[in-house]
Structure formats: structure tokens, C-alpha cells
Structure to design on (781 residues):
């Protein structure tokens, strides 16, 4: 043991250095992360799929959508303009719009290419050489006072084919535009739709708060008769942040209060409580600083998991003070330093072995593909290591105050230690345990759906669903990635896949889809459209008089037809229409191939989409949710195999260290604990996930400490019993509270650990704790 003052100085220097490093990291960009997706594993995918997912996430991750609903169209438009003006005055949002491109802007761009563009209905009529329906439609528009026809348009497009094609860009949706505001008729009136992109990540707490403040300010000036629907990652992230903060406060607060009450009840002194709080606080600070330094960020879920550190780190203080209590029962304290140092020398070997087992369990977590679990592993492991260092370096100086020489808690532990070995489980109870394990394990099922990791509040989900209906399905996480070796081949494949997707929309199996083929037809389609329109220009002499137009414009129209330009994809991608709407982001290319994203919204039958992707060459259904879920299932199985291998290796080590009889009893505890926990989860109707499996590894790493301390108790049975019981209570308190978390992953983690620690304690008392001699409790340590 180092000199008391020297050890404390070294401990204090380490604490200051590590804390300063963490503070420096925070001031230079380290941040709190709230995105649940940041916990998820990386999936092995080719470069184009990764690029496509990044494009989709970049386009929609930080964007919010608002629907302002009013009885009258003018009121909705006025409200939308007010909100847009207010949002533009803040720095929290950019790229704020309602209708990204007016019809006038689109018409100006597409008009030179009008003789290469036709709707599906127009193509069918011209293929059948039926001009009469087209002439009749043009006449109706011509005499409609609200129609788009005018003399300039008629002189360049006598059958008014172009306005119908321009309207088809909306994908058949009943949208309207007024003064740059996108409107949708509802059953009760009109809804004005607004979109805005957050200037920072919705999962950054500072940017998140700025966006919410700016949004609330913009909406606060609206009339009371206007209802607002919201959608976007911002609202889910804000709810997750609020939930995590509440859980950190509740779980950490109750755990800390429980620890304080335990310390006061056992030791009836404020000094052990003060030392314990110092140990916990310093360990938590170090864990936070180390994690920030290693990852440059700290996930809120890591902090929630990290609150369990309270229940584990306090165990070391319990073992130290319980050892001192038993020593105080049997000897006079002649030297304060000698008392603390002698207790540390007695417990440090076993405590070091317990630390090693816990750290190994956390290291196992670090080898998982989940960044969030790696953070949890580093956070808790570094915190426990510093707790151990605190005992070794700081306790010789800080923890030397005299304790009460008589303790009710220790006396109770002495009686319990003498009573328990005489009441072992009968053979009947052992068989009942076997039946419980078998029956519960048979009932156990698995569910690796990543969507159950976090559930947003019902009001947020309901508003998003209503807004998605207004937007005809919005955009789902799944999309189609279409590939080809050339630009024209890609456009052709996009057109091919659009036909079955359109049928799915008509069959109400799909809400909507967005494909670039709607905005830029392939070269082959443009040539066919141009040839079909040739029928019109061959009969201008008959068509123009029916529309009341002067036949003298026929020559100019024919020349325009003969010299009409072709629409190129590269030209379209550079337009403001493509850039502002985000449609340009749907086009991808690398050195070897081209690709395009087809966005899907309102998917009701994903299997039908998958069937389409299998029918055509070069089409892939990208479903990140399903990919991650499959990855989670894969690693759940690997984790269970890792646990089985760990239990086997541990059994061999225990037999080598403690002999065959005692070693097998120690090994039997984590093995039976694992089986009993799985059986209990099965009886409880739980669906096994990766987080249950990860928790079982920690059950082994934490719970095996109880067996090790009992195996090394020797003549200190009473103090070890008290320390183990106090440790188990504090750990159960910490992990039991995790089990009531609103986040499914945390709840599964906490519930499994609670069951596992409870079973470990009961089995360790049953199999490992030996019966002490009657006079052993009276001997000096």
C-alpha cells in the first residue's frame, strides 16, 4: 500500500487531470447524442447503397413539416406566410418553403421541351390516332374562365398538351398553390403545408432547443382557430431527450437515495456516507470524461445505463466498511491508519478479482457492433476502475475515522450466516427449478425488430400519421435503388418500375412514390413522344380552325416541332427546381455505374414492393430497418454463444483456483442463473432480444463477485455476508429501476439484470456459502 498522503495526492492528481481532459473535449466539440440510431450497428453494404442511405437521411433527417389547418383557404395561406416569415427571422432553420417551385418556374423551364413530353393518357390517345378527345379537352380549357389557356400558350401549344403534363408532375395528388403556398383540401377546410430544414442536427441538444424555441415563437402568433400538425425527427428527438433526462433524474436520484439510506442504516455515521458519495461522484465524473475523450460524444442512453454504476461502484465501499465493522467488533483501534490499511489489505485481492470479472464482462460488451454498447462498456469499466483506485489510493487517508464498535446490521448478518447453511434446498425444490427452467425456456420467443428500441409518445405519432395522410403517404424508411451502366439505361429502368408501382398506388397498397422518370423521361420515351406529336402537326390545317386559331401559325409551329430540343438529365439536375426540391439528391453515380433512388410513401404491403424489386434487373429494395433487425438477430445468437463459452472457461478457472468441489459450486451459480433468468423471461412472456443477451453477460460479470467473496470469506463470514447483501440490494435497486424505463432496450436490459442478480444471490447463498463453525464468529480476524 502507498503512503496515505502520497496515495491521496496521486488520486487527486488523476481526478483533476482526467476531469480537465473531459472538460477540454466538451469545449472543443464533444457533445451529447440523443439519436437512437447512433446506438445501432454498421451494416456491410456496397458503396452505392450506403451513399443512397446517406442521401435519404441527409434530405429528411433534419427537416420538419407543418400543416396549418383552417376553414378557409385564405386564412390557411395567411397563417402559412406568417409562420414562414417568423422562421426566416431565426437562425435555427434554413431552406424554409411551402411550395418549393411555383408552377410558373416549372413551366418556364420545361416549356422548350414540351414537344418531347406527354402524359400516359395523351400517349394512348395519339397512339390510337384519336385527336378528337384532345381537341375537345383543349376547347374546354379555352372557354373555362379559370383555365390556364391564353393566346401566347395557344400559339405554341394549340392542343394545350403541356399544361396537363405539367399538372401530372404532382403524381395525381390534389395539391393547389396560392401565392407560393402549397394547399391540400381536407374534409374540414384547407391545410397549408410548410417544410423547413434545421440549421443543426435535430439530435444535438443545443440545436434542438434552438429549433423548438424558434418554432414555438413562430406558432404562438397564429389565430386560435388554426390547428397545427407537426412531423419530423426533431419532435421524436425532443421527446427522447426529455424522456432520457427524466429517467436519469429518477433512476439516478432514487438509486442514490437508496444507497444513502443503506449506508446510514448500516454504519450510523455521516462519514462513510460522505466517503461513499465522494467515491460515486468521482467515478461518474471520470467515466464521463473518459467516454467523451474516446468517442467525442456521449449518448444519453449511455448516461441512463451509466446510472447503474451507482449500484456497482458502491459495492467496493460496502466491502471496505463492513470489514472495518467486524474488525471494530473484536479489537481496539490503536492506529487510525492501521485500521484502514489492514482492511484494504484483506479485501483487495478478492476485490481485484471481482473488478477483473466485471471489467471482462464490460469488455465483452465492447466487442459488440453497437456503438452505444461500446460507450456503456467504456463508461462503466472506467468508472469501476477509478472506484478501485479510489479505495487503494484515497481511502487510507480519507476513510480512517472511528466506526461504532457494535452494529445491529453486522449482528443480523452473523445470525443469518449461521442460520442459512442449515436450510438448504431440498431435492423437491431442485426438481421444481428444473421444471421451471425447461417450461419457461420452451415458452421463450425472440423479437429483433429494431423499431421496438424506442417508442415516441402517442400524440407525436398520431400527428405524424395525420400529416402523412395529407401528403399522401409522405416518405417511408424503405426505398428502391435502381442501377444501370448508363444514364439512359437508368432512366429506362426507372420508367419500367414506375408502371407496377403505379398499379400498387391504384390498389391502395402504396400511398405514393417519387421517381425521377416522372420529371425526366428517357431518350427513347422522348423520341416516341415527339413522333406521336407529329400526328398533330401533320393535321394542323384541320385542327387550328376547330380551335378558332389562325392557320398562319402553322408554319411557325411546324418549325418549332422540327427543331425542338431534347431534355437531358444533366441539364435538369442543375436547375433550381431539382436542387430546391431535393430531387437532385435522388441521382447517384460513381466511376462504374449510375443509380437513382425511388422514394416510397404509405407502404401497406412491403412484400409487394419486394416482389417488384425481384422482377426487374438492377433494382434493390433498401430496408435499413430490416437489415439492422437481421444484424441484431445475428449478434444475439453470437452473444449467447459467447456467454456459453465464457461460462465454460470460467468453470475451468474456478476448478483450477478453488479445487473441484468448491470450483464446481462457484461455476454452477452463473450457469443456473442464466438458465433461470431465461426461464423466468419465458414465463413472463418476454421476447428475447440482443439486449437481454448482453445483460446476461453482465449478470455473469457482476454476480460472480458474490460467489467469489463467499468463497474467500474465511473467518469474515458475517462482514462478507453484510457487504454482499448490501451490494445486491443497491445493484437490484439500480437495475430494477432501469427495468421500468420507457425505452424498450433499457427496460429489457434492466429486467434481465434484476432477475439475474437476484438469482445469483440466492444461488450463491445456497451453493457457495459454507457453514461457519460456532465459535468462528467470535474469533478475531
Amino acid at each position: 500500500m502507498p503512503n496515505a498522503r502520497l496515495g491521496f495526492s496521486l488520486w487527486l492528481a488523476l481526478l483533476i487531470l482526467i476531469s480537465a481532459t473531459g472538460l477540454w473535449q466538451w469545449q472543443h466539440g464533444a457533445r451529447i447524442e440523443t439519436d437512437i440510431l447512433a446506438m445501432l450497428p454498421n451494416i456491410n453494404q456496397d458503396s452505392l447503397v450506403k451513399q443512397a442511405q446517406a442521401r435519404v437521411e441527409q434530405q429528411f433527417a433534419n427537416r420538419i413539416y407543418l400543416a396549418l389547418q383552417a376553414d378557409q383557404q385564405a386564412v390557411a395561406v395567411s397563417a402559412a406566410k406568417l409562420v414562414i416569415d417568423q422562421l426566416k427571422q431565426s437562425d435555427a432553420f434554413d431552406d424554409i418553403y411551402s411550395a418549393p417551385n411555383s408552377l410558373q418556374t416549372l413551366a418556364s423551364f420545361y416549356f422548350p421541351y414540351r414537344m418531347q413530353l406527354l402524359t400516359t393518357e395523351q400517349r394512348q390517345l395519339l397512339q390510337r390516332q384519336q385527336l378528337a378527345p384532345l381537341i375537345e379537352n383543349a376547347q374546354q380549357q379555352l372557354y373555362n374562365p379559370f383555365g390556364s389557356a391564353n393566346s401566347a400558350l395557344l400559339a405554341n401549344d394549340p392542343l394545350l398538351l403541356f399544361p396537363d403534363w405539367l399538372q401530372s408532375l404532382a403524381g395525381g395528388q390534389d395539391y393547389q398553390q396560392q401565392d407560393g403556398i402549397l394547399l391540400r383540401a381536407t374534409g374540414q377546410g384547407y391545410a397549408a403545408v410548410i417544410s423547413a430544414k434545421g440549421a443543426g442536427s435535430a439530435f444535438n441538444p443545443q440545436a434542438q432547443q434552438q429549433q423548438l424555441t424558434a418554432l414555438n415563437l413562430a406558432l404562438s402568433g397564429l389565430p386560435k382557430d388554426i390547428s397545427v400538425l407537426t412531423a419530423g425527427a426533431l419532435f421524436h428527438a425532443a421527446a427522447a431527450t426529455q424522456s432520457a433526462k427524466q429517467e436519469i433524474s429518477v433512476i439516478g436520484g432514487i438509486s442514490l437515495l437508496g444507497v444513502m439510506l443503506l449506508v446510514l442504516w448500516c454504519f450510523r455515521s455521516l462519514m462513510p456516507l460522505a466517503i461513499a458519495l465522494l467515491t460515486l461522484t468521482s467515478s461518474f465524473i471520470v467515466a464521463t470524461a473518459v467516454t467523451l475523450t474516446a468517442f467525442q460524444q456521449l449518448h444519453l442512453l449511455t448516461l441512463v445505463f451509466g446510472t447503474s454504476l451507482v449500484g456497482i461502484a458502491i459495492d467496493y465501499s460496502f466491502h471496505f466498511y463492513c470489514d472495518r465493522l467486524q474488525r471494530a467488533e473484536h479489537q481496539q483501534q490503536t492506529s487510525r491508519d492501521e485500521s484502514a490499511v489492514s482492511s484494504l489489505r484483506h479485501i483487495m485481492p478478492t476485490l481485484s478479482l471481482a473488478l477483473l470479472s466485471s471489467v471482462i464482462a464490460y469488455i465483452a460488451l465492447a466487442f459488440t457492433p453497437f456503438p452505444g454498447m461500446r460507450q456503456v462498456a467504456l463508461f462503466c469499466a472506467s468508472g469501476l476502475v477509478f472506484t478501485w483506485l479510489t479505495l487503494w489510493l484515497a481511502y487510507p487517508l480519507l476513510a480512517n475515522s472511528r466506526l461504532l464498535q457494535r452494529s445491529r446490521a453486522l449482528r443480523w448478518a452473523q445470525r443469518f450466516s449461521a442460520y442459512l447453511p442449515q436450510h438448504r434446498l431440498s431435492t423437491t425444490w431442485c426438481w421444481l427449478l428444473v421444471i421451471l427452467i425447461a417450461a419457461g425456456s420452451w415458452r421463450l420467443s425472440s423479437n429483433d425488430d429494431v423499431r421496438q428500441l424506442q417508442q415516441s409518445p402517442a400524440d407525436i405519432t398520431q400527428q405524424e400519421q395525420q400529416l402523412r395522410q395529407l401528403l399522401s403517404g409522405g416518405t417511408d424508411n424503405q426505398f428502391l435503388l435502381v442501377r444501370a451502366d448508363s444514364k439512359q439505361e437508368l432512366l429506362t429502368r426507372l420508367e419500367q418500375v414506375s408502371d407496377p408501382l403505379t398499379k400498387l398506388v391504384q390498389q391502395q397498397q402504396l400511398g405514393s412514390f417519387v421517381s425521377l422518370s416522372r420529371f425526366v423521361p428517357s431518350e427513347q420515351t422522348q423520341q416516341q413522344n415527339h413522333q406521336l406529336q407529329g400526328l398533330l402537326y401533320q393535321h394542323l390545317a384541320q385542327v387550328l380552325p376547330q380551335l378558332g386559331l389562325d392557320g398562319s401559325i402553322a408554319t411557325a409551329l411546324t418549325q418549332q416541332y422540327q427543331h425542338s430540343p431534347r431534355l437531358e438529365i444533366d441539364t435538369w439536375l442543375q436547375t433550381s427546381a431539382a436542387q430546391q426540391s431535393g430531387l437532385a439528391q435522388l441521382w447517384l453515380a460513381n466511376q462504374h455505374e449510375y443509380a437513382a433512388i425511388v422514394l416510397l410513401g404509405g407502404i401497406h404491403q412491403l412484400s409487394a414492393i419486394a416482389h417488384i424489386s425481384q422482377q426487374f434487373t438492377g433494382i434493390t429494395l433498401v430496408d435499413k430497418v430490416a437489415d439492422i433487425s437481421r444484424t441484431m438477430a445475428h449478434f444475439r445468437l453470437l452473444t449467447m454463444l459467447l456467454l456459453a463459452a465464457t461460462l465454460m472457461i470460467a468453470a475451468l478457472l474456478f476448478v483450477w483456483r478453488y479445487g473441484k468441489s468448491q470450483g464446481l459450486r462457484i461455476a454452477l451459480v452463473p450457469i443456473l442463473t442464466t438458465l433461470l433468468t431465461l426461464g423466468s423471461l419465458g414465463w413472463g412472456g418476454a421476447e428475447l432480444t440482443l439486449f437481454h443477451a448482453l445483460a446476461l453477460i453482465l449478470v455473469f460479470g457482476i454476480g460472480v463477485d458474490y460467489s467469489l467473496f463467499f468463497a474467500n470469506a474465511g473467518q469474515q463470514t458475517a462482514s462478507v455476508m453484510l457487504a454482499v447483501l448490501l451490494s445486491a440490494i443497491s445493484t437490484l435497486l439500480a437495475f430494477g429501476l432501469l427495468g421500468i424505463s420507457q425505452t424498450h432496450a433499457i427496460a429489457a436490459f434492466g429486467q434481465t439484470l434484476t432477475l439475474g442478480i437476484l438469482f445469483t444471490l440466492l444461488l450463491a447463498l445456497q451453493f457457495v456459502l459454507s457453514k461457519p463453525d460456532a465459535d468462528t464468529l467470535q474469533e478475531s480476524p
